[in-house]
């Protein structure tokens, strides 16, 4: 479809920090692949000219790419997806760009949450814990494995009336 564009790290970060472009990236991230029409319908508060301009910037910056196209009444409709640099490897953000996107997405999620009229961190059991831990690489791998095993016990739960989606994000960073 479209040629692969080398993503410049600094330019990509600038592109992701724009609120409109970040919302577009988030929408594509959640949907997998989408047309401009689908994005415009979902983000209807963004003017059409702005939408096209921002999608063009994301495409030229290599953050999204065309993964399909079809002719509709004489025009070519493109389907976009995130670039490989933004996609996590499984459940892990492994590259520089996918890590930045994951962190920015987390910030956006919290921002969206606190903008809600009924936001109640106590009721919703919102929690942030940060603790420095002294561990060898082997101990840290064991720790990560334990967290993974615990998480796996709940990952395949089926929906029930008293179950809600809870996003649990694990971030490890050098101290």
Overall pLDDT, averaged? Answer: 84
Structural class, from helix and strand content? mainly alpha
Strand order of the largest sheet: 1-3-2
Low-pLDDT segments? none
Based on the structure, what is the oligomeric state of the protein chains? single chain
Secondary-structure element series: HHEHHEEHH
Strand content: 5-15%
Alpha-carbon distance between the termini?
A: 42 Å
Structural Rg: 19 Å
Helix run count: 6
Helix content: 40-55%
- Silhouette: globular
Number of strands: 3
Tell me about the largest β-sheet.
Answer: 3 strands, antiparallel
What does this structure look like?
The mean pLDDT is 84. Strands 1-3-2 form a three-stranded antiparallel sheet. The longest helix is centred in the middle third of the chain and has 20 residues, at 96-115. The chain starts with 8 loop residues before the first helix and ends in a 20-residue tail after the last helix. The protein has six helices and three strands; from the N terminus they run H-H-E-H-H-E-E-H-H. The radius of gyration is 19 Å and the shape is globular. Helix 1 packs parallel to helix 5 (96-115). It is mainly alpha-helical and 175 residues long. It has helices at residues 9-17, 19-31, 36-42, 48-60, 96-115, 137-155, and strands spanning 33-35, 64-72, 75-82.
